[in-house]
Amino acid sequence: MNSMHSTNGSQFESVIGLEVHSQLLTKTKMFCTCPNIFGIEPNSAVCPVCLGLPGALPVINFEGIKLAVKAALALNIVINKRSVFVRKNYFYPDLPKGYQISQYLEPVSSGGYLDIKVEGVEKRVEINRLHIEEDAGKLIHIGNESYVDLNRAGTPLVEIVSEPNINSSGEAVAYLKELRDILVYLGVSDGNMEEGSFRCDANVSVRKKGDPDLGTRTEVKNVNSFKFVEKAINYEIERQIDVILNGGKVIQETRLYDSRENLTRPMRGKEEAHDYRYFEEPDLPPLILTDRFISEIKGSITELPAAKRERYAAEYLLAEYDSGVLTQDKEIALYFEDLIEINEGRVEIKKIANWVINDLLSELKTKDKMREKRKEERVVDLVKSENFLGLILEVEAGNINKNTGKTVLTEMLLSGKKAGEIIKEKNLAQVSDEKGIGDIIEHVLEENPKELAGLISGKDKLFGFFVGAVMKKTKGKANPKKVNEILKRSIAEKNKEC
Ligand SMILES: [Zn+2]
Fold this sequence. Notes:
18 helices; Arc Repressor Mutant, subunit A; elongated; 16 strands; disordered N terminus; binds zinc ion; 3 domains; alpha+beta
């Protein structure tokens, strides 16, 4: 890249549309009864239907329809009571049938939006449609050989297509994050980008500011992390601006993002829709949904992240950042809400939020062992909410100080024990009694006559030295406030004696 666009590039604006493919968390595949699971022996979850053997007939998985409708409703997309499955025809080694069952002109839902916030500014991203389709299999390349694993063939997917009204990589990432959070909240998808259950293709074009026409777009395929989405889009915007500024023309094509080199490479010319020879799937009837079915699903949608964030700010008076962190993961949000409920007003909500954000979440993140564990178990199984609140209450009551509290929390996560038990077992209770602390202070002062003389002669900095020495002697268990008080008194007395 040259540096031209930093000056000339500002006359351009970028236009981005996103296509998201998200696998649905059904037990079985979309049109057969094979299990829908990841990571098992290749080609062990296949049958005549998903292998495309002659005579095998597809049957619609109703669970998949429910999840797709749920996702569409949460994204404010209008449900079409009649929709049609079609065949999208193309050849690829991971597609044994030679076509993919999808929806085209009559999708299950169309016309919706998702509100996002980028650096404090609200933006409404229009959604063109959400439709149902099946996934293809997977190619695995080892050395010079290629293998086909068809376990994924026939897995239910929803494709969510935004309108091209996203204007920066920042907006794109905010949209994708919000979208993923919603799908995970709903239990529609596991949102796992590395395993490919949540994938994104970005259509990127640039145009001169004020130009009513869209520029020629390129499609950047399968970018598998939010960071890469941002980088790939930024690269593509700069590349296209460079092409235009150098007198060239952007070619409509599909490009692959290379995360190692941070650039996109041409993969193939972009197909037009008519290349796929769409036609109605003759083996499946149109999908007809009743009002009752739709309203039942609507009724099953619980509070979504955006609503939770707003409520946390209004009801709990939490800062935007804190509400954002707490609601990112539904499990954590529900855990936090449970803490508030059993707390019954004993501890300030802000304090409980801080414990969750600064201590619990960072512990869960940093400890590999716990992260592993967390994948299998819910946080509530690692540390019951009443035990976590118990720990906070121990600190609030002054039985242990905040630092010891952190040590206790680590121990709680490892052993599942209650705070009180750990404090007793490890003898961690805070030393608060005046006599006990006074004795230790006397001891420390005697042990360090030089420093004491210095302090009395006016070297105030040495006060901290003594506080530290006392804390060390008590293994951090002394009540720091008490130590400060008594130490000041003792030194004042020594001063008089001199
Ligand atoms: Zn099958």
